[in-house]
Amino acid sequence: MSQTNKIQTLGSTLGSLVKPHRTWALAALGALLLGSAMSLTMPVMFRWLIDSGFLAGENPEGLNSAFGYLLVLVFVLAMASAVRFYLVTTLGERISADLRNRVYSHLLVQRPEFFETLKVGEVLSRLTADTTLIQTLIGSSLSFFLRNSLTTLGGLVMLLLTSPLLSGAVLLLVLVVMVPVVILARRVRKLSRASQDKLADSSAIAQEVLNQITTVQAFNQEHTEAAKFTTSSEQTYRTARRRTINRSALLFVAIGLAFAGLVAVLWMGAKAVASGEMSAGELAQFVMYAAFVGAGFAALSEVLGEFQRAAGAAERLIELLNLDTTIHKQGLPAPAKQGGFLIEFKHVDFAYPSAPEKFVLENFNLSIQRGETLAVVGPSGAGKSTLFSLLLRWYDVNQGQVLIEGQALESLDLEQWRANCAYVAQEAVIFSGSLKDNVRYSKPDATAEEIDKAMADAAATQFVRRMPDGLDTSVGEKGVRLSGGERQRVSIARAVLRDAGLLLLDEATASLDAESEQLVQQAIEKSRHGRTTLIIAHRLATVMAADRIVVMNEGKIVEMGTHKDLMAKQGLYAKLASLQFIDENAQKLMANVAN
Ligand SMILES: Nc1ncnc2c1ncn2[C@@H]1O[C@H](COP(=O)(O)OP(=O)(O)OP(=O)(O)O)[C@@H](O)[C@H]1O
């Protein structure tokens, strides 16, 4: 993006953010204008004081009222500044909260592929650090900039009115100061972006490691991980230092040149007073305005650095907000659940967007009847879970179609369609909160009876009874306080509670003991009536209970039929089944030995 485009996008983003709060922003602007006008009036007051005999001690009454006016001026200035500060800072907070909410809502509707390429830590850093920068920009830098621009501009006009010759000298000075400032500011901006990126990298590293802390500790990787983090944060530090060096240089140039010039102007002014070309009051007024202008430019150069950082942050946030990996959502009303759904995969080709060359499904065809329970088996990586990803529309097919009751899945209203699906992931997903919160995640308005029934169906009643606070027991982040099997039962209860027309179970019973598995099996058995159920399973017991079994290998269906048919075929299924039998026999043997 070119520099002008960047400023334009920053401007239009800021504009759209400020728009809903324009009354507030206008009030802030009013207070700012009033404050600046008061500041600019101050030197005139001083000139008047000096020239009307303040120095000579004449006219003591006039002196009293002049100081009285000055006091009023100071009071108005103080009030305007306080009001401006309140309005502007609050506006900054409001807008940064709006922006955070907007970015977060936008993130939540991104396709899963977005999160495959961008690390969660990085996203979080954008959500917090970058929005904070915008807050600083609106809540202080922008007002600082406006205030200083006004006093600088007003000061310049007043300088010209006071003494055109001396003003010429001051303007020359401004030009001399501006050139190095602009060059340095550009460098600061580049380094700012780099520094924010580096910070995001560090937080992405920390996020991943802290999420997997037990594995890190089990493999003694604490030192390696700490070293990785250190390397990353050292890079952040070095970039930040380079930025600070440049900003310091910026300050030196701006302040040094400005004040040196001021001294020169003062010298010229002193000579003018001595020769009677100027009154003492006029010189005082001139010097005050020149100080305004000098300090104004110095302040502007400083705030320019802030702008650059905020522009970097805004650029990244705009990038996020403009991302369009969202799924086209609106569409035809999804068909009503009438004893489940008729689902057809027709000539489906599919490759994950992150590996577009590798087709996970190729010319895949499958019809699933209304109310059918279909088991999907096959070796790891065969493409079983991918079928679920397509049915839940995390991804769309590359070729062919997925039809629901004869309608293309892509044409259906996504929210309505997903409301018809209940899904249990391969790895049970548990949120922090209570057991109850976790179960009713699928149906927030569920009654206590419905929750109890779902828990009972998922064979979870027993373990919940043993919990200190029953259903209100807090499970910890990601459910760390539950065992693997307990987590799985909670996520099954969640799916059962949804009472959806399509139930998708991805190895839902894998971490259950034999008894719980049997109980859940019975629950699935009970709940399969009136809905279409797809079960990905490795265990034979689960598979045998299905109406039909589909055997997949390398993205294709290689066999299909009942357990009996498939065993008779002596193909892949029979092979997988025999391995499973051996496995189960071995387990029984072990159990006998243990007893
Ligand atoms: N997000 C992804 N991006 C790229 N490739 C993926 C992604 N998810 C899965 N794959 C690949 O797609 C293929 C099928 O994966 P899938 O998860 O459907 O297999 P599966 O049959 O469910 O395996 P398992 O029994 O191990 O769960 C695998 O080769 C896998 O590496």
Automatic annotation (TrEMBL):
Pfam family, one: ABC_tran
Domain ABC transporter, chain residue ranges per copy: 343-579
Highest taxon of source: Bacteria
Subcellular location(s) per record: Cell membrane
InterPro entries per record: AAA+_ATPase, ABC1_TM_dom, ABC1_TM_sf, ABC_transporter-like_ATP-bd, ABC_transporter-like_CS, P-loop_NTPase, Type_1_exporter
Membrane topology category: Multi-pass membrane protein
GO cellular component: plasma membrane
ABC transmembrane type-1 domain span: 26-309
Molecular function GO terms recorded: ABC-type oligopeptide transporter activity; ATP binding; ATP hydrolysis activity
Keywords, ordered alphabetically: ATP-binding, Cell inner membrane, Cell membrane, Membrane, Nucleotide-binding, Transmembrane, Transmembrane helix
PANTHER family: ATP-BINDING CASSETTE SUB-FAMILY B MEMBER 10, MITOCHONDRIAL (PTHR43394:SF1), ATP-DEPENDENT PERMEASE MDL1, MITOCHONDRIAL (PTHR43394)
UniProt-recorded name of the protein: ABC transporter ATP-binding protein/permease
